[in-house]
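Supplementary notes for students who missed Thursday's class. We covered one full example, reproduced here. Read the sequence, then the structure, then the short commentary at the end.
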Amino acid sequence: MSVSAAGQATAGQAHTRHGVADARRVVVKVGSSSLTTASGGLDADRVDALVDVLAKGRSGGEKEIILVSSGAIAAGLAPLGLRRRPKDLARQQAAASVGQGLLVARYNASFARYGVRVGQVLLTSDDMSRRAHHRNAQRTLDKLLAMGALPVVNENDTVATDEIRFGDNDRLAALVAHLVRADLLVLLSDVDGVYDGDPTRPGTSRIAEVRTPADLAHVEIGSAGRAGVGTGGMVTKVEAARIAAAAGIPVVLTSAVHAADALAGRDTGTHFHATGRRSADRLLWLQHASTPQGALTLDDGAVRAVVEGRKSLLPAGIAAVEGEFAAGDPVELRDATGRAVARGLVNFDAKEIPQLLGRSTRELARELGPAYEREVVHRDDLVLLHA
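Structure (token representation):
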């Protein structure tokens, strides 16, 4: 055990994080490295160790747990004769197709030791940015929990394209936590927290509490290194923690071996305090999980109306359109310099918009019919982007 880990365990006995220990609904995310062997296959002992913690955490009905699990692609490598994770999307999807079944089968067998049913939920970002799909996902997860099952969530790698991928399961976990109105998000990996430098070097220490983004201002999250803040994986975890914290959900980021301590509220890993309030579910997905299918360029008056006035985007304020998109798709709203100022769900197909540019809704209704007397992007389907 390292000095940091030993100190962590000692401190954990004397301190309980309020708001973490008593969290009722918890989303737990685990990375591939915490579930697989060095050769890439599933490690049954590691899976069982995680399941032991989660099953005991929900025993007695005190906690509801949703598990966001990576590992499908890694689990599918060996059965397909692949020595390493492929770079091309087609072979990644093939590996995910084989591996997802193996992963869920392993979870089913492990949780069965405790009489716990597992329900698989596969998501794409496209599912979450559309109204009907978003509500269906929410209802499914709520119903699984109500019926006593433990949802196991993963990105639907077998069908997701580059355009509709979450990109990483850390971000997916943050968004799922908001979707299910979780009280806590726990991010588990092979790293035991955020450090103020390379944790392999003497003199660095674990950052136990992050109360505001300013607490990490001095930490180079993107720097090179073997572990801690120097890994690419830590970048995505910190970003996921920020997304969840800004949405009113506290986060504990630690290693899988400290999962029990994290759920118990003991001093392990890095605790990100909630920094914001919960927003409309769909808007969080729109901001962090959607990929714009096109762009609308706004005149100066429309930019002020959307950004400062928080108003809907009307046809009269649009100067140009680009891309191929359908009604309901996410689009980027740009100012005259090309800077993205907002993102929203558009109410018209791309081919319809050129005839609307610069015209009032009243004029369009007279000429084209009442269906055109409406906003191009309604303010309820719009999020501002902050640099």
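Commentary. Residues 89-112 form the longest helix (24 residues). The chain has two domains: 3-284, 292-384. If anything here is unclear, bring it to office hours.
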